[in-house]
Structures are given as C-alpha cells and as structure tokens.
UniProtKB/TrEMBL annotation:
Its cofactor is Zn(2+). It comes from Photobacterium proteolyticum. Zn(2+) 3 binds at residues 74, 102, 132. One of its GO terms (molecular function) is phosphatase activity. This is Phosphatase. Residues 5-79 form the Polymerase/histidinol phosphatase N-terminal domain. Transmembrane segments: none annotated. It comes from the Bacteria. Belongs to the PHP family. It holds the Pfam family PHP. Zn(2+) 1 binds at residues 8, 10, 74, 193. InterPro entries: Phosphatase_YcdX_put, PHP_dom, PHP_phosphatase, Pol/His_phosphatase_N, Pol/histidinol_Pase-like. Keywords: Hydrolase, Metal-binding, Zinc.
Length: 246
C-alpha cells in the first residue's frame, strides 16, 4: 500500500527531536511524499514549545522542497473530560490536530478511565485523529472507542514508531485496533512519528500491519493527498488554495 501523506512528524522544537523543518521537508521529498504535517508536541509535554510556536505557524510556507506543509500539533489529552492543552483560538488556526495520551502528562489509570477519556476527546470535536493508540500503558475498550471514532469522523492513527519499538507491546494491539476499524468503517491515518528526518515518510511497519489485516485502501486517508484534504474539509477545515492542484 502506498502512502503519500505523513500526518505525524516532529522538529527540534519538540525538545526531544533532532531535525529542523527544512531537513524534514527534504527527507519528505526524497521519500516521494506529497504532503506532511508538522505536529510538534503541545506545551504540557516536558520540553515542548510555548503556545506562540503554534500561533505563529502562519509564517510557514505551504511548500518546501516541493512537498506541501500542513500546520499542526500533537496535543496532549489532559484528563478524563477529554480536554486538550491548546487554546481553541490557536487550534482553530491550524490545519491538523492529533490528540494523544502521553505518560508525562496523563498518568496511566484504569481501562475504564482511559476508555472514557478517549470517548470524551472524540466527542469534543477538537481533534482530527487519535495518536498511537496501541500503547499498552493506556488499555481501553477497542470496540467502543473505534466505533465512536467512526461515528464522529475522527481518524485512528497507525503509528510506525509504535511498531518499531518506541512503545513496547503496541504491535499486536495496533493490529487488533486496525481490525476493529476495518469492521466499523473507521478511517485510518498513517504517521511516522518521526523524531529524526530520516524517519519522515517511513511506513515500513504500517504497510506490513495493514496488509496482515487486509485493510481496505479506501479507508486510509493518507493513500492520496486529495483524500486527506477532502477529509479535512469534511471536518470543517477551510480549503487550502495552494493545494488545489494536488
């Protein structure tokens, strides 16, 4: 399966990543990507940038090295109410918002608590995708959350970094989540979760997992740039004039 969009990448601004935006863009071009999202960690993550980093993304060009740039954030889910750590006035200016559970921000609790948290952030309407759900530290009711994601048009991310050892134990869980998504009609996005430029556009493990579960291409929004951009418009994002020809 071919993927032309990477919806989860980090720059040095995240504090524990090692490449600049220009380096990531060059890597994206070398991998043949059409688009990639800049998704540095939101302010609650230790080492993350100040909220002005996100408020000022309007200065970023729409193309670097011939690859389209989407302005985004990996927001932290803060509590069981499903709140995230970015002001709506700022997130409304962005193209793309991932919501993720991170141990330094949200202490792992019970399966029911994690399930309620994920359901509430889905229903909030404030995120476009749920990040790296395979993390075994945050067990949850797969069927309930994936079904809600399908209902509210929130994407489920299959994260290549999770499948490559960054969150040990994620692989079998991601496979189960993808299988539930296939049956529920939920759509997926693919993220490298690159913290170094060489990993931008690396979907080697994602590709293998989706092949194993026979996941349908039409339910993966990153297989073509127009499919991804149409998803954003479905979610009420304004069309991006510079990407009209993609």
């Amino acid at each position: 399966m071919q993927f032309s969009v990477d919806t989860h990448t980090h720059t040095i601004s995240s504090g524990h990543a090692y490449s600049t935006l220009l380096e990531n863009a060059e890597a994206a071009a070398s991998k043949g990507l059409s688009l990639f999202c800049v998704t540095d960690h939101a302010p609650s993550m230790p080492g993350a940038p100040h909220f002005w980093h996100f408020a000022n993304q309007r200065v970023l060009p729409r193309f670097l090295h011939g690859v389209g740039i989407l302005r985004g954030i990996e927001a932290n889910v803060l509590n069981q109410d499903g709140e995230i750590d970015i002001d709506p006035r700022i997130s409304s200016q962005l193209d793309w918002v991932i919501g993720s559970l991170h141990e330094p921000v949200y202490s792992p609790s019970s399966r029911q608590s994690h399930t309620d948290t994920l359901l509430n952030v889905i229903r909030s309407g404030r995120i476009h995708a749920l990040g790296h759900l395979g993390n075994p530290n945050f067990d949850f009711d797969f069927e309930a959350v994936v079904s809600a994601a399908a209902q509210y048009n929130v994407l489920i991310e299959i994260n290549n970094s999770s499948l490559s050892g960054s969150r040990q134990g994620s692989e079998p869980r991601c496979e189960q989540i993808a299988a539930f998504a296939r049956e529920a009609g939920a759509r997926l996005t693919t993220g490298s979760d690159a913290h170094f430029a060489h990993d931008v556009g690396n979907f080697s493990q994602v590709d293998k997992l989706l092949a194993r579960v026979n996941f349908p291409l039409e339910q993966v929004v990153t297989h073509h740039p127009r499919c991804f951009l149409e998803f954003l418009q479905e979610r009420g994002q304004p069309s991006i004039e510079e990407f009209a020809e993609l």
